[in-house]
């Protein structure tokens, strides 16, 4: 199966689970659930859930369990996109080819929808339907909290906002920012399969290392698309990062050097998966797909 076909199959399976997990209730609180569904169930590659499913496959994890973890990651990722698009953050009116949550609903509803998706992600992980072993569920909750909090995504976003006010930033500064903001959640998605499958330290290290390298490459690809991409393909406005003076490796290194750096990162990422032999061939191919994508 090609990477594109495998990702499409995984995206459809995860979407079905997310749809079931987000029924619209009776009563006025339905509006916030409608906003949650609007932002999380719309179009999207479901890249992080795909990584959960593929890493879980390495350990023969029950697919229903892996799908729930994938759904939780996508809920959390969707929360981050809602908040990123707010006027106080990136101030973007377009997401995945249609109005951002705060434009479709309103800013207050968008904030609440993001908050609800964040908290619901942990509720899904903590539910016994995700895994029979409570220690595994607790470990998933702990790992996702670290990846998405001040040591990860939120901390990286804070550094990103501060960087807009600085006239200079170097390679080390930007790499740390992007490891926290983007790579940590990708790392969790890769390691989640090993947590579900109770993999040993060597397996978990290999998957985390793969996720770190690929996460950085993923962000470089995003930054290149902001400069070179077409908003009709990317589904969001382009040129915003440069206009805001965002700290990116493309800004530090230049376009061609950043592209070469991304290629080196995906090669390193693939080598970490040699631990799993041919079972990880699809994950190796995904690393290259990440930097060749147009959206």
TrEMBL record:
GO cellular component labels: cytoplasm
**Any GO MF annotation of the entry:** metal ion binding
Q: Which cofactor does it need?
A: Mg(2+)
InterPro entries, sorted = Isoprenoid_synthase_dom_sf, Polyprenyl_synt, Polyprenyl_synt_CS, Prenyl_diphosphate_synthase
Tell me any Pfam family this protein matches.
polyprenyl_synt
Q: Name one GO biological process term.
A: terpenoid biosynthetic process
Q: Which UniProt keywords apply?
A: Isoprene biosynthesis, Magnesium, Metal-binding, Transferase
Q: Which residues form the signal peptide?
A: none
Q: Which family, according to the similarity comment?
A: Belongs to the FPP/GGPP synthase family.
NCBIfam families xref list? FPPsyn
Full protein name: Farnesyl-diphosphate synthase
- The organism is Oceanibaculum pacificum
